[in-house]
Amino acid sequence: MVQQISEIIFSEDRIPMILAGYEDSLAMLNQQSDSVLNTLKEQRQGIQTKIDNNISVISQSGSPSLLTTLERLEQELAEVGEKIEAHEQSSGCMSVEPAKVVAAYRKAQ
Question: What pTM value is reported for the model?
Answer without folding.
Answer: 0.61
